[in-house]
Amino acid sequence: MEYKMIVLDLDDTLLLDNGNISEENKKTLNMAQEKGVKIVLASGRPTFGVKRIAEELELEKYEGFILSYNGGRIIDCKTKEVLFETHLTKEQKEKLFELSKKYETFIHTYDEENILANGDNPYSYIESEITNMHLKIVDNFLDDTPENCIKAVFLQTPEHLKEVEEILKPSMKDEMSMTITKPYFLEFMNKDVDKGKSIKRLCDILGIDISEVIAIGDSYNDISMIQTVGFGVAMGNAVEEVKNIAKFITDTNENDGVAKVVKQFVLNK
Which residues are tagged catalytic? Predict the structure, then answer.
């Protein structure tokens, strides 16, 4: 199979634990781009938090794409055009805020450059550090955040969030998309959004068959894309649920797992 697109999760997949791209990953992906293979950065991060990585990989030059907010927005790096975007409604944001109070979690959302949190908490600071976005603690979450936000996030300990996820699954499955990314982030988006659906949208725009796509990830929000594409790959450090549905398991993010997949299945080395 000649693969035409490589879709990459960022944290704990493409990126080292320190948040940077290894030289081996960068060199190998540039070789794939020189062959004409499209690179898509597919992350739960807001768009602002993906741009540095896109610039480092020269996605503007090589006509790559950013798929941010777990698929809530698709951007053409060459033209800067937003190819797809969808939001939570005002009513859904209000409902999530009430649920966050009921289940004793923090909640935050975003504008284009800031994380907007309803209270001072350690988990929003973690995302601020990961994404290099400024964290603002807002006085009134409903009034001081965008009316139609792309994504909202519950934040608490991993054990607490797993309990909340299980409680909300029956009522949320037909209303909103819900997924855990980092263990302390439970994320909510429009019900028509996940990484797999948005990769399919992008393939339809570009005329690429989904069977010609490789997707590599490590966490729960990567499951949909790994199941959707022709060749779904789990990182060596992935959660077991991802490993169980992947067609191939590569090395860890600290050992250039992405580069090893690209060399073997794209560059044929």
Answer: 9
Domain span at 124? 90-190
Q: Looking at the whole model, is its pTM more than 0.85?
A: yes
Radius of gyration of the chain (CA): 18
178 and 228 part of one domain: no
Count of structural domains, the chain: 2
Domain stop point among 190, 218, 238: 190
Confidence of residue 269 (pLDDT cuts 50, 70, 90): confident
**Judgement on whether residues 206 and 243 belong to the same structural domain of the protein:** yes
In the sheet where 65-68 sits, what is the strand order? Answer: 82-85, 73-76, 65-68, 38-42, 5-8, 213-217, 231-234, 248-249
| Rounded Cα distance, 20 and 237, in Å | 17
- Taking Cα atoms as reference points, which of 171, 177, 197, 173 lies closest to residue 189? 177
